[in-house]
Amino acid sequence: MRKSEVFAEARRQSQWAIVFIILRFVRRLVSQLWPILIALFLGRGGGGTWERYEAIASFFGVFGMVVSVIAYFRYYYRVSDTELVIRKGILKKTKLNIPFGRIQSINFRQTLLHRLLHVTELRLETAGSTGEETKIDALSIPLANDLRSLLLAKKQEALGESIHSSAPGIDSTIEEHEETILRLSNQDLLRVGLTRNHLVPIGVVMGLMFSASIYAASFGYEPWEFIQRGFDLREEATMTQLLLAGTLIIVLTLLASLARTFLNYYDLHFYRSGERFQSIQGLLTKKEFAANDRKVQILNWGQNPFEKMLGLIDIRFRQAQSGDDQNKSMRLDIPGCDDERLSYVQTAWLGYTPKLAEEKHRISISYFYHFAKYVIPLGLIIIGLVIYFGAPGAWVPPSIVLILLVSGRWISFKKKKYLWTDRELYVGGGLIGHRHALLPLYKIQNLSIVQSPYQWRRGLSTLLVYTASGTIHVPYIAIEKATQMLDQFTFKVETSRRAWM
Amino acid sequence: MGDTFQNPQVAVATLPHISNIDYQRLHKEYLSTQILGTSLFWGVAIIGALGWTIFNRAIYPSWINYAGLLLLLVLAGLSYIFDFALYRRAGYALREHDVIYREGWLWRKVTVVPFNRIQHAEVTEGPIDRLFGLSRLHIYTAGGSSSDLTVPGIRPDEGERMKYYILNKTSIDEEE
């Protein structure tokens, strides 16, 4: 049977979808009713009649089961001549019509459960003001593959583009040319894991240790006692204790970073397929991410100091989205790349090699002075007050904060650089590491020049470049330069015939 | 997308320049709406302060009360000056391919929205606007809510005409 015929009739999902519907029901119930659930749980301890709570719980359980099963039987999908049609809903019936041309990308996502049941979730990203993602909970893998290739072929047909020079028929599988850009072996993952940004995990680890020690202390147990006893130095042991605690924190943080890296990026395969970048990754949940060239508005890349030592680069594709929140499923982050892969990605995305090697422009040093002029006197006043009124030694923390603030501003001034050609804008910066952003000018939505009183008195300004996936700031540049850039960019946007998405 | 991509060089000096723009001022009634708003706000604050002063006369020495009132009056006066200055600097301009809006007095901002990036445009009238026969033109792009443009202080018919001009331009640009 031809693929289009298979999906022409309304079909249900795989039976396993019931499991996922039930899970979702439970999750929603818990996330909405958790205060009540906690109250019930505590109420039970307080001598409430157990039977009643049991009855309520089993009522919800049975109700949820029934609803989920009905929901499963009420869910149909069908591929018509022009669109994908999904009907669902128990009381409120919904009919979703997704014209093929509106489909942006089709991704699979497999949690551990999906993999055990040999099914996959199918996610459809569509262009449009709703920006909603449509998903089919569970499809058997061969069926999902067929559906995807059918939808992609129909999409190409709808857009009136030949798939490739050979232009295969709708029912033949699209053999899009795939080019591997990066594969991460376990050894690569280890390097990536060790060079991740550890600030988040270090916070988590310290928070966990802190709450664990409070928890332990509430049971009359002194958690650091074993360290003290181990050295049997008591009071003199503070330095050793600190060292031990520090080592423990570092080891735990590294482990946490490694675990996170392996969970997210295990077996990462990053490749170029047709006009999009794609990746498959994940240890327990196998996820697919796709970024269409058209949909990507800004290309970010960066290095923290650890990554710089090993020559690793993170690449992030920022895709257009409706709404202001950065939807996580829309973000394609690839760690562990290098210069060669970065320039491959840039060239493939833009269709040409950007000229980024040229001398870049610096921003005005007023960016630093204006900050220092207010922060240093203010900081000195605070330090003076602390010295005068505070305990001895209390001036150390505010002094450190002041030094960090001022030197941080200086570093970010030194790193902030920008460059524009007649086709693209580049802005680089960073505090601890380096962050870079690149966008082709025709993807700009609109532009602003803003000036604070300080800035316009000195002929300076900040240029804001708005795109469909975030705003790029070029701060503290001469107003003449900002207007020149604005004129040139608007000219480019207004004369470009390329669709920004 | 059948046409070949062309990329002729353009001399930067010949580009249309944003500095040479005659901005269209907003209608005088817009200043009135702002002054009304300011008066309502400071009126309530000053009446509140007066009431508070009268009821707490016994507790605080009178010079504190007078100083407080004076401060409020000064702030209110400054707000009026602000209204005036903001009104004088606010202005919009329609060009062949974009719409420009200038706003702000101490903190200044000029925004350019090319027609071929506009998602949609609408004209709204709030209750105070309607009282003064005004409306606002909202212009939305895909650049996020912080980049959307609102031109206040225009007549409803002007708003509608501008909207149709813009939407017409938008569709022409798309056909090209």
Q: What is the CA–CA distance across the termini of chain A?
A: 36 Å
Q: Strand arrangement, largest sheet of chain B?
A: 1-2-3-4
Number of strands of chain A: 20
- In terms of per-residue confidence, which ranges of chain A show pLDDT below 50 for 5 or more consecutive residues? 162-174
Beta-strand percentage of chain B?
A: 15-25%
Mean pLDDT of chain B: 87
Counting copies of identical and different chains, the oligomeric state is heterodimer
Query: What overall form of chain B do the CA principal axes indicate?
Result: elongated
Give the biggest beta sheet of chain A.
7 strands, antiparallel
Write out the strand line-up for the largest beta sheet of chain A, numbering strands in chain order: 6-5-4-10-9-8-7
What does it look like?
The complex is a heterodimer of chains A (501) and B (176). With 501 residues, chain A is an alpha+beta fold. Helix content of chain A is 46%, strand content 25%. In chain A, the strands form four sheets. In chain A, strands 6-5-4-10-9-8-7 form a seven-stranded antiparallel beta sheet, sandwiched between helices. Chain A has a seven-stranded antiparallel beta sheet with strand order 13-12-11-17-16-15-14. Chain A has a three-stranded antiparallel beta sheet with strand order 1-2-3. In chain A, a hairpin with a 4-residue loop joins strand 9 (276-281) and strand 10. By secondary structure, chain B is of the alpha+beta class. A four-stranded antiparallel beta sheet of chain B has the order 1-2-3-4. Chain B has a three-stranded antiparallel beta sheet with strand order 5-6-7. The radius of gyration of chain B is 23 Å and the shape is elongated. The model of chain B has no long low-confidence stretch (mean pLDDT 87). At the A-B interface, strand 18, strand 19 and helix 15 of A face strand 4 of B.
